[in-house]
TrEMBL record:
InterPro entries: TIR_dom, Toll_tir_struct_dom_sf. This is TIR domain-containing protein. SUPFAM superfamilies: Toll/Interleukin receptor TIR domain. It comes from Streptomyces sviceus (strain ATCC 29083 / DSM 924 / JCM 4929 / NBRC 13980 / NCIMB 11184 / NRRL 5439 / UC 5370). Gene3D superfamilies: Toll/interleukin-1 receptor homology (TIR) domain. GO terms for biological process: signal transduction. Residues 2-146 form the TIR domain. It comes from the Bacteria.
Length: 405
């Protein structure tokens, strides 16, 4: 994965004898060593005919943070003032990190009285420039901010969704939840939220008695609204309890021929919903619904018709073309069937729906011998399956319903 882009803001006139040129070259080298990509806008980087401010705006837009070399020239530079103003705007919107590298010839008093002082630069992390031959202190001081930029530039949508929810949690609760999950304490609250999101989403089988995940959720909840609390519970428990390998095997079914069939040994269809959510790799799970089988003649025809009715009523899918569109835009529709996948049943479903659907058969463990050669998931031990579902139900009931907030 490419490293974060760091916008290098500075002003260095040609031929000047201060520290600005050595600092620029050293910081570019340091950023490269740390796996980052310096974003430098100067005359050499401009495309012929490109406007200077447009180039700065483009560079800032592609960056994940900014490092400002505070020289005596930078204090008087309109370009640096504009760059810091853009960074401030982004910081208010999405926590855009800004690091100030103070050169020896600039005092804090001079900085605060300059054109940069009106933007309150003293609120930013300030790192002293020790000289080009002693960069270990600089590396140590800016590494947390670079780690934050890495976290912001990478990660899945689910991770960033959890980070978003954690923004409203106070620092003490974050620290207590992190200690419970074994997440190292970070001095930067934004970086702590990323670390904690990774801890909440890490695969973590349930433990008898006191469980770290449940204890951490108790520290973090409730959030400001029931929808946010419910989503945090569902995402955390689902990712912690459903094995990643199982989710990958379920996604692998999508690359098989028709019909796409997976078999899950489980006690309830609630478990199937958790597996679908984990396999989706998105904050929202793939669309899915349950079609229970009823005894009697015409069972296959009845099942095919009910699937068609559900697709039309719930998802506005009425033919193969709209089914393909839905799969392309949102992923497959998963049909949960609480019944072993006998040969006639699978054949009938494949004929009626040759693409766009994934059939997930939920089977009691004692009936697994009748599931044929279809992709068979491992499932969870009964007590862990029940703990997963019970945890979601209890926490959602307490924190994720309007009456509880």
């Amino acid at each position: 994965m490419p490293g974060p882009h760091v916008f290098l803001s500075r002003s260095e006139p040609l031929g000047c004898g201060c520290n600005c040129w050595p600092a620029r070259r050293a910081m570019e080298e340091l950023l490269h060593q740390e796996g980052c990509e310096p974003v430098v806008v100067d005359r050499e980087s401009l495309v012929p005919g490109q406007d200077w401010m447009a180039a700065i705006s483009d560079g800032m837009g592609s960056a994940h943070g900014m490092l400002l070399i505070v020289s005596s020239h930078a204090l008087r530079s309109e370009h640096v003032q504009n760059e810091l103003a853009m960074a401030e705007l982004r910081n208010r919107h999405d926590g855009f990190p800004v690091i100030l590298l103070m050169l020896p010839e600039v005092t804090l008093d001079a900085l605060e009285k300059s054109g940069l002082g009106s933007l309150s630069p003293h609120r930013r992390q300030m790192v002293q420039w020790p000289g080009k031959d002693d960069l270990d202190a600089v590396r140590h001081d800016i590494r947390p901010q670079l780690d934050l930029m890495r976290a912001e530039s990478g990660g899945a949508k689910v991770h960033h969704r959890v980070v978003h929810h954690l923004r409203e949690v106070d620092a003490e609760s974050l620290s207590r939840a992190g200690a419970t999950l074994g997440v190292p304490l970070e001095t930067l609250s934004p970086l702590m939220r990323h670390r904690l999101a990774s801890g909440l989403l890490a695969e973590r089988p349930s433990e008898p008695g006191s469980d770290p995940l449940r204890a951490a959720l108790t520290e973090l909840l409730p959030l400001s609204g029931p929808d946010a609390s419910r989503e945090l519970v569902q995402l955390s428990v689902t990712h912690a309890r459903v094995p990643a390998d199982e989710a990958a095997r379920m996604r692998g079914v999508l690359d098989t021929g028709s019909p796409k069939v997976a078999v899950l040994p489980a006690l309830s269809t609630e478990t199937a919903r958790r597996y679908i959510h984990r396999a989706s790799e998105q904050p929202l799970p793939w669309d899915h619904f349950v079609v229970p089988l009823t005894a009697g003649a015409g069972i296959l025809t009845d099942l095919v018709e009910r699937i068609g009715e559900e697709l039309l009523e719930e998802f506005d899918i009425h033919d193969e073309e709209t089914l393909r569109e839905h799969e392309h835009d949102f992923g497959p529709v998963v049909v949960i069937v609480p019944h072993p996948p006998d040969t006639d049943l699978v054949r009938a479903l494949g004929t009626a729906y040759p693409e766009g659907l994934l059939f997930l058969f939920v089977v009691d463990g004692e009936l697994l011998g009748a599931t044929g050669t279809h992709t068979r998931l491992e499932g969870l031990p009964a007590w862990r399956e029940e703990e997963m579902n019970r945890t979601v139900r209890r926490f959602v009931r307490r924190y994720g319903t309007p009456a509880s907030n």
